Amino acid sequence: MMDLSFVSTGNATIASSPSIQATQWPYYWLLIILVYPILTAFLREQRLRNTKKAFTYNTRASFARMTDEDAHKIQLDVSQYEFPFIFQKALQFALFRTYGIPTISKLLVATSQLSDVATASKRYADTAVLIREFMSHKPSDPRTLEAVARMNYIHSMYQKSGAIKNGDMLFTLSLFALEPLRWIQRYEWRELEEFEKCAVGTFWKSIGDAMGIDYHPLRSSREGWVDGLQWLEDAEEWSNRYEEDHMVPNIDNHKTANETVSILLWGIPDTLRPIGERFVSAVMDDRLRAAMM
């Protein structure tokens, strides 16, 4: 027996069969497809306006008064609400990019960190946890202080022996600040605002300060930086030169890259791994690709 639904219109009653109702669904989906990007764009712009209103860093001169606390809040908003997926992938790629420097990859191979299948995943997870701790909690939070202290302890024994160079530390720090900006500019719906870039620079400079990294190679190190954006600009200029001088092909780069790619592609079916490996190679620039191969 056919199930009918009835809709009353005045004195008349119209029978609507399931087949008639089914023909309406494509129109609903079309409406959703049209409305969704408009609503998304509106809410994104509204969030940006609210952030600007909350922090009032509207001019370059105002950036000089940005605190570490405000910088952390702004970056947290960018990384967890605005661009969570791209921001996370950019940080992963920043770590990966450091392995194109032979002095960094050589130490990782010598200590079997990230170059040996038995230890690579644990070392990668440990690094991710520490970074997540001080990125997710405000600068004065005990969890942030403990994460930075732990990171400093791990590095200290290698720094004392000269195995870790200040240049490599500064280069790694600069990539954690710069790669998210580059990936957002390349793949997301908008670039970061200047005050957001300043927040990123302010945050990572404060992390470098807590790690005792020497900034003397940067252009404005002698007179100091007016704001986090100036530090970020100096870090980008210097890190580009550092890459040109130090990112060269080396077997240790290749070993470390192989294990890290395996971690990045964890969970992908074996049949799709060749596609994943090609994708990782595609997002590399020519210099990095040459240094890893």
Structure overview:
The protein has 293 residues and is mostly helical. It is built from 13 helices and 2 strands, in the order E-E-H-H-H-H-H-H-H-H-H-H-H-H-H. Strands 1-2 form a two-stranded antiparallel sheet. A hairpin with a 2-residue loop joins strand 1 and strand 2. The chain is globular and about 75 Å long.
Produce the secondary structure layout.
Layout: E1 5-9, E2 12-16, H1 18-22, H2 25-55, H3 68-82, H4 84-98, H5 102-110, H6 120-136, H7 142-161, H8 166-187, H9 194-211, H10 228-246, H11 251-264, H12 273-283, H13 286-292
Name a few traits of the molecule.
293 residues, mainly alpha, 69% helix, disordered N terminus
Strand content: under 5%
Number of helices: 13
End-to-end gap: 69 Å
Q: What is the typical, i.e. mean, pLDDT? A: 88
Major β-sheet strand ordering: 1-2
The percentage helix is: 55-70%
pLDDT < 50 stretches: 1-10
Largest sheet: 2 strands, antiparallel
Number of strands: 2
Order of helices and strands: EEHHHHHHHHHHHHH
Short description:
The protein is mostly helical and 293 residues long.
